[in-house]
Amino acid sequence: MDNKEMKAAIEQIPVPKEKVFEAIDKGLTKASQGRHSKKKKVLAGSATAAALLGITLASGFINPTMNKVLANAPLIGALFQEFDDSTGVNLANQDAVTVLNQSQTKNGVTVKLTSSYFDGNIISITGFVDEGVERGHNEKGEVSFDVNFEGNKGDRDPWLGMSYDIRKVKNGYNFQWKTEYPYGKIRDQFTLPVTIHSINGIKGEWNFDIPFQQDKNTTLAIEQEQGYPDDGVKIKLEKILTAKASSALTYEIVKKYQDDDIYIYKAVDDKGKVYRFDNGTKLSESTEKDGLHSTIRRGMTIVDKDISSLTLYPTLSIADPKVQQLLDKKSFTLNSKRLGLGMQVNDITQKENKLIIDYQFTGLSISKGLSKHQLELFQNNLQYELLLVDKDYIRKIDPKNPVPPENHSIRLNKDKTIDKKTAHFQSTFYLNGEEKIKSFKLENTILQFDFSSFVPAKELQPFTVELPGEKE
């Protein structure tokens, strides 16, 4: 068989494209390990793929399909590798990323969008902005966007919570926006209108229509309920949606106390694999007779097809109502409503422009004193969790956005540990500092305190869900 016949024969060999991509992805990751520069990661990964391609070419037996796979993989996935986006690399390896070439120039700043992907619950947009942004208000190397999706504005934008990453490149900056899909019903394809109002303070109104598409997802119905009556919490699992590179768990939480936070921090399948979760999207919320109902969808590690069960590990962060006391006496006790903790205020002393409060905590399980971790927690949080407020302004604090009233409150203090064995501390407030209370008088000032931040999240009993069922 001559060389020409050999080439023809090799071209007929089917190439396991996804496995080749997977191997290249692993090579990219391995090549980047131990390097601190993200730019070096891309260069090292590209060199690795180029070396593989060079070996193929040097052999003299050229398989066009194989060479196309090897040549395109580092080009498609390099940007996602640069942003440490494993989902993007995975999707690029499966040809599931939409390549864009949309560009606009406004007020001397050019924005070019380069790619988009949608995988079950997460959407991504990558792009490039040129060095014209450096004429803006930000420091050199910093880029910030004022951007809205679908013509929404401000807090009414359901796409709020978008994160973005920036990388300096030749003549400008590469960027990636990532956010969670905010709607309950997931469409296989849609166009998302995007408006950039300003970049680094430079106004311009850059408008784009970005296409998103994905193959039909697989949905596994679960419909299992787990209750924790002692904690006033119930979790109702609904379904697991699986896309090409990730999965998403949809579930409903029923809770007695509105501000409690229930968080599923991991899952483990029957084969021991651990699954992690993203922050999640609240799809709906309603108040009913049995409590506050919230439906949540959270992205997670892609669920393997051959498993039979998942064990979920939830935690509960208890929101204890804030307590307060008028400082018209030198000693008193503040007691938490739900946590069984107390703060015994031993003494209050005003010395010129300083207010010193001496206190210790009760109800803690510290027979041998505060541990190192507990002490660090207290020392850090005590700087901010004691709030002094003018009694005439306490009602003006919005519970949903509890910003202390300016010139009528002091939060920041300098805390001191007196005795860690008895959880004994002292806080000094500077009455003439940046935060102040006009016409300060002890008898007109309230001390407000929140015990919640001093208690770690409670680990609830894990529960297991069986997965076999019909897939949609």
Task: Characterise the protein shown here.
The protein has 472 residues and is α+β, with helices and mostly antiparallel strands. It folds into 4 domains: 3-93, no CATH class; 98-213, Sandwich (Immunoglobulin-like); 218-318 and 458-466, Conserved domain protein (Immunoglobulin-like, Sandwich); 323-454. The chain contains 6 helices and 27 strands. A 5-stranded antiparallel beta sheet has the order 1-2-3-6-5, covered by helices on one side. A 5-stranded antiparallel beta sheet has the order 9-10-11-15-14, with no helix packed on it. Strand 12 (261-269) and strand 13 form a beta hairpin. The longest helix has 21 residues, at 38-58. The chain is globular. It starts with a helix and ends in a 6-residue tail after the last strand.
User: What is the SS-derived class?
Assistant: alpha+beta
Strand content is 35-45%
Principal-axes shape call: globular
**Distance, first to last CA:** 50 Å
Helix content: 10-25%
On the 0 to 100 scale, the average pLDDT is 84
What would you report as the Rg, rounded to the nearest angstrom? Answer: 28 Å
If strands are numbered along the chain, what order do they take across the biggest sheet? 1-2-3-6-5
The biggest sheet, with number of strands, parallel, antiparallel or mixed sense and barrel status, is: 5 strands, antiparallel
Number of strands: 27
Number of helices: 6
Describe the structure using short key phrases.
five-stranded antiparallel β-sheet, 18% helix, 472 residues, 6 helices, Immunoglobulin-like, alpha+beta
